[in-house]
Specification:
Elements lengths: L3 H5 L5 H10 L4 H4 L4 E6 L2 E7 L8 E7 L2 E7 L2 H17 L9 H14 L6 H14 L5 H11 L9 H14 L4 H17 L9 H10 L4 H20 L28 H10 L5 H10 L3 H6 L5 E2 L4 E4 L10 E4 L2 H7 L15 H18 L12 H7 L1
Antiparallel strand pairs: 1-2, 2-3, 3-4, 5-6, 6-7
Helix pairs in contact: 8-9, 9-11, 13-15, 13-17
């Protein structure tokens, strides 16, 4: 409101000046020769400044577009205000400087906005993400990359830690009534693995497993056995849907070259001499190993009830076989003759705890017999020679 003291500050013709100012849409501040004005729309501000020239008053509108300052000059304050308001509104909505869209472009824009509405993404953001993904993908579409990701990491896949999967597998193996020796070895291998990899199982890369095995500085056979134990763990995780069905990280872990040394066998004469001096508790072990080809671990688990002499075969049950599959091994005539004097209805074939000690004991007996005969020969146990002799 104008007060009386306001009028005292102006000359007698103040009312005339005020009427003229009203016609030019000037405020009281204009009458007082204001030189700057602002127009605001939201957070956008456009400046107007009085810029006299040639004795006339002009009004300059200034604002920034794409980092560049734009100035426009108008003869009246009202025109400057109108343009400033228009530019401020355009900058607030992001339309300032935008190119006019064709009808086809407008339709495409509306379709793109409609497609993005369910996910709540802005068009500019979606375009940026797509461009970034395409630049990084080589000869693969974005859709194919997404399909591959969900194949490897299904939404319903449970993210299990290595330690948890190892414990679950070992508990299952214990319930399967497998041999104590096998379970101890598996537990030893997998506990070493879990001690090294403390992450989620699906994050364990084959290259990391290969590096770990090489750093252990173990022999090729031990290294391959560890690899087999890890493969068993991965297969178990796949069956429980902790890993995708096409998980193949161990394809990056090559088997170690195991020369294994020269393959040795016993000649028929050596085998005859060995059986001739063997103690009664050694004969079934030696005869089945040499004439049926069972492995030492299988012989240690074998029961007389599974040696079906009358039926002509030995049954190796899955929980006693290295391959975890049942097989029937024929009993040859010579094996039948060696086993008949020792056959039992039940009980272990190897009725002793430590096979290695029995082998050492057998070697002492054989060498003692050779010494009695003044033979220059010396007997030494040959690793896996019984099975190799049968195969040969």
């Amino acid at each position: 409101m104008w007060g009386f003291h306001d009028f005292a500050e102006f000359p007698d013709n103040f009312l005339t000046v005020l009427q003229q100012a009203a016609k030019k849409d000037l405020s009281r501040a204009d009458v007082e020769k204001r030189t700057k004005w602002t127009v605001e729309r939201g957070s956008t501000v456009v400046n107007i400044s009085l810029t006299p020239h040639g004795g006339e008053d002009y009004f300059t509108v200034s604002y920034w577009v794409d980092g560049k300052r734009v100035r426009q000059v108008f003869p009246t304050l009202q025109k400057a205000k109108d343009v400033a308001a228009e530019k401020a509104s355009q900058m607030t909505t992001g339309d300032l400087g935008a190119a006019k869209l064709t009808d086809a472009d407008s339709a495409a824009y509306r379709r793109a906005e409609a497609l993005l509405e369910p996910v709540g993404a802005a068009l500019e953001f979606a375009a940026s993400e797509y461009a970034s993904a395409v630049k990084r993908l080589v000869a693969v579409s974005l859709s194919q990359a997404v399909d591959f990701h969900f194949k490897r990491h299904p939404v319903q896949m449970e993210p299990k830690m290595v330690r948890a999967v190892v414990d679950e597998l070992l508990k299952l193996e214990e319930s399967e009534q497998l041999s104590v020796r096998y379970r101890k070895q598996l537990a030893y291998d997998l506990n070493r693995f879990a001690g090294r990899f403390c992450s989620r199982l699906r994050h364990v890369a084959g290259t990391d497993v290969d590096e770990w095995l090489r750093d252990l500085k173990v022999g090729p056979r031990a290294r391959n056995n560890l690899r087999n134990s890890v493969q068993l763990l991965f297969n178990f995780a796949i069956s429980r849907r902790y890993l995708p069905t096409d998980h193949d990280e161990l394809s990056a872990v090559p088997l170690a070259r195991d020369g294994g040394g020269e393959i040795e066998i016993y000649s028929p004469q050596e085998m005859a001499d060995l059986l001739a001096v063997a103690l009664p508790e050694h004969v079934p072990f030696l005869a089945i190993g040499a004439f049926a080809g069972l492995r030492h671990a299988e012989l240690q688990r074998l029961n007389w009830a599974e040696v079906r002499i009358d039926d002509g075969f030995i049954e190796v049950k899955p929980n006693k076989a290295k391959t975890a599959s049942r097989r029937l091994v024929p009993i040859q005539d010579n094996l039948k003759r060696w086993l008949k004097p020792y056959r039992k209805a039940s009980g272990h074939i190897c009725d002793y705890v430590n096979t290695s000690n029995q082998i050492d004991k057998l070697a002492v007996i054989v060498n003692a017999k050779l010494k009695e005969k003044d033979s220059p020969a010396a007997f030494a146990w040959k690793r896996n020679a019984l099975r190799h002799s049968f195969i040969s």
